Amino acid sequence: MAKPGDEYLKEVTSPSELKRVLSFEVPRERVESEIEEIIRGIRKDIALPGFRKGKAPLDLVRAKFAETAKKEAFERLIPLAYQRALEKEKLEPVMPGEISGMEYGTEGPLRFQIAIELYPNVVVRDYRGIKVKKEIKMVEDKDVEAEIENLRQRLATFERLEKEAQSGDVVIIDYWRVDAEGKIIKGSKVNNYPVEIDSGSVVKDFNDALVGMKSGDVKTVEVVFPEDFPNKDIRGKRARFGIEVKAVGKRVVPELNDEFARMFNVESMDDLRQRIRESLERSCEEDAKAKAKREVLNTIVQESNFEVPDGAVDLALKSLMKSYREEYGFEEGVEDERLKEIEERLRPLAVNIVKEQFIIVEIAKREGIKVEDADINMIAKSIADRAGVSVDEVMKRARETDEIGRWRQDIVRQKVLDFLYEHAELEE
Q1: What is the rounded CA–CA span in Å between residue 98 and residue 15?
Q2: Considering the entire predicted model, what is its pTM?
Q3: Based on the structure, what is the number of domains in the chain?
Q4: What is the CATH number of the domain that holds 366?
């Protein structure tokens, strides 16, 4: 049985497997009727100069609010036409449609098009019994001692010295990037950053600039990033930094003895070593399990062939590029040839991210994997405990920011990974 709005859809074209373009025509009399209804509604609610509320002449209201009424009519009719078309054609868009080609002249119907992308036909390879190695790293004595040294270093205190910075000293600095005109690049400033001179924690030019500086000194230094710098995009590149020394001093670390051990609620260094060994073994087990889960999922993604919507890939790529800009100090909106290259290199990753999302949803659907209220409550309680607030406060904030939707995605992903791991063939 036809429903109001069914007749507005005039044509559906398929530019590609997942794309559809819906062409609409809304009869002029229908549009004008909607506009008239809106005009009459406006008239009831307003009081124009010289007239009581609801008593202004319709012609005067039409003249004053014609564009407003037409816009509101479009905002009512277009979603109606769109929704009815989706129901009629049994289409399921993966994201909101894009309106184009809107026409409404002095005569004729309202014409417009809406381009949509559909959920793909998710073809997933057999995901049970995938062979994967679970390689658990053995904990050695040197690993235990390294962890103890890490604890010792974390408990180090800073002893301020009134002197010029030399090799081995720790310098607390503020630093920022400077453009070619000597201006600070927005968002690049880092405050109270500790640097141990000659420790290799910063590039050589930056390190050498700190030698001889004392508290209160400010200078600008040009840095050339070495060819083996971890970020290959800036290897060999030049950059200018401003530096202000806040303090010069040295790190004082505690001695390794039973008094040190008692800081961790054990009686002796032997007890501390045993506790650390057990903790490292648990961590290695969890790391091996997490790596195996990722490998199983990666195998499924790589061996499952289906097309993914371009729009969803573009959104994923946009998110990746936003993270890249933030990490490497590119301001939003600033164009750079390097960014175009990075975007092309990141596109295959974006495709895999989207593909993985569809696969996870599909496996969850097939296996009846769902999010329970208890799962949401567990996350909320964990956040509440860390923040020192009530669970109700956390849930209220999560609803306001739609954070619960992200929680649900994370929970489903973890449950699917657990399922795949349980049904994999592990080789230890």
Answers
A1: 14
A2: 0.69
A3: 3
A4: 1.10.3120.10
